């Protein structure tokens, strides 16, 4: 189950709220993904390696495989030879060399521009590639440190990051005009306030918060939502007793 709609742009009201903290949205422009590859992101809103050039990805994977087999970056047990930062810099250096078609100036320009980000990607304690490079999870689970999936994963993550950084602003899916779905929030709010009724208690929603199901076929008020949540919590507590 997935939703192909993503908010691309919002046109705000020129007037602020009474407390001057926000402006209501008049028009919302959604990007509706065509789901051509069976996922909800065939356009590459959150760009992955599969959205790039498959031939370039294969060349990067081949280059990584060569370095792994000859123990340039990792030893025979799959443990890193360089430091974590040094290993990741070497990977980016090899991947950008192929991505920019062996153009040294473009490769060096990319590495100088994003060197800090690469270092952070190696050492950030929350979201980084450091644990994959050191094999922290492979050692704890006794998985194969020399598995092909591990090394291909490195190539895929680095290639997708390069693609995201090199993508021009106008190439982003939010500018796919042919995929736009325009919704006028002011009309929707007017209809919801004066015509829609709660599907549970049948009262008018007026200005209260509204909740809908996945397909937006039903709408219910905040009070009914609280009652439903409370009933679900009580039933779960009774089931665990």
Helical content stands at: 40-55%
Q: Which shape, going by the Cα principal axes? A: elongated
Number of strands: 5
Low-pLDDT sequence parts: none
Indicate the proportion of strand residues. 5-15%
- What assembly state would you assign to the polypeptide chains in this entry? single chain
N- to C-terminal separation? Answer: 32 Å
Average pLDDT works out at 86
What is the radius of gyration computed over CA atoms, rounded to a whole number of angstroms?
Answer: 25 Å
Strand order of the largest sheet: 1-2-3
Q: What is the number of helical segments per DSSP (H or I, 4+ residues)?
A: 8
> Which structural class do you get from the secondary structure elements?
alpha+beta
Number of domains: 3
Major sheet characteristics: 3 strands, antiparallel
- What order do the helices and strands follow? EEHHHHHHEHEEH
């Amino acid at each position: 189950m997935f939703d192909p709609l993503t908010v691309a742009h919002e046109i705000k009201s020129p007037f602020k709220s009474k407390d001057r903290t926000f402006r209501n949205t008049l028009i919302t422009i959604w990007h509706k993904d065509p789901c051509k590859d069976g996922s909800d992101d065939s356009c590459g809103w959150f760009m992955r390696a599969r959205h790039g050039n498959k031939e370039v990805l294969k060349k990067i994977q081949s280059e990584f495989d060569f370095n792994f087999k000859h123990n340039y970056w990792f030893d025979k047990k799959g443990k890193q030879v360089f430091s974590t930062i040094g290993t990741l810099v070497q990977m980016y250096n090899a991947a950008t060399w192929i991505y920019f078609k062996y153009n040294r100036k473009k490769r060096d320009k990319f590495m100088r521009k994003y060197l800090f980000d690469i270092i952070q990607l190696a050492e950030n304690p929350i979201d980084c590639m450091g644990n994959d490079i050191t094999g922290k999870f492979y050692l704890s689970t006794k998985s194969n440190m020399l598995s092909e999936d591990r090394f291909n994963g490195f190539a895929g993550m680095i290639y997708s990051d390069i693609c995201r950084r090199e993508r021009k602003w106008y190439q982003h899916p939010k500018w796919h005009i042919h995929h736009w779905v325009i919704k006028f929030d002011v009309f929707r709010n007017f209809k919801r306030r004066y015509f829609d009724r709660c599907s549970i208690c049948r009262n008018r929603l007026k200005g209260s918060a509204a909740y809908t199901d996945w397909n937006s076929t039903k709408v219910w008020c905040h009070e009914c939502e609280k009652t439903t949540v409370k009933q679900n919590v009580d039933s779960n507590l009774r089931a665990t007793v």
